[in-house]
Amino acid sequence: MAPLEEAQKTSLICMAEIVGVHGIKGVVKLKLFGDNPAALTDYAPLCDAQNKRSYKITHLHAHGNTLLAELEGVSDRTAAEKLRGTKLYLPREHFPEIKDDKTFYHADLIGMAAVDTAGAPMGKVVTVANFGAGDLLEIKPLKGASYYLPFTDACVPKVDLPARKVTIAPPPGLLE
What we know:
- The protein folds into 2 domains: 10-94, Elongation Factor Tu (Ef-tu), domain 3 (Beta Barrel), CATH 2.40.30.60; 106-167, SH3 type barrels, CATH 2.30.30.
- By secondary structure, it is mainly beta.
- 11% of the residues lie in helices and 39% in strands.
- The protein is elongated.
- Mean pLDDT is 87; it is low at 1-9.
- The two termini are 29 Å apart.
- The strands form 3 sheets. A 6-stranded mixed sheet has the order 11-10-9-8-13-12.
């Protein structure tokens, strides 16, 4: 994630990243971070990490495991190439409040302190990933390399949003 002011981190939700181009007419390939591709056009326009440039998707369709998008004002491959790596955000006010206490926006989890079941510090959540088999929390421990932990009730028995901490119970052998 690009460096942002703390308030800006929580006010913008990353929806997609431009990961490539397709053809010569400025079509970009998107990696989607949400579960609803229609949200990219429903809540348009999207913006960059600094909320300084906006992007309006004029056409969107699936292409393998990515999405192809036409962006207003991007009409050739050269312009599209310059956008590679750009993350596209939506302001948080476009999203509904979550009423289920077991559902979270990934942006709310990133940066949370991770503690063990006894309350001892274990590190912090640096990202939420999903490689196809369910969400994983990437935990950066106080020392050493980060590791992934399944975001399940067994491995993450408690998420305390107001306190900005998650209680983790790594499976036996994970940290050895």
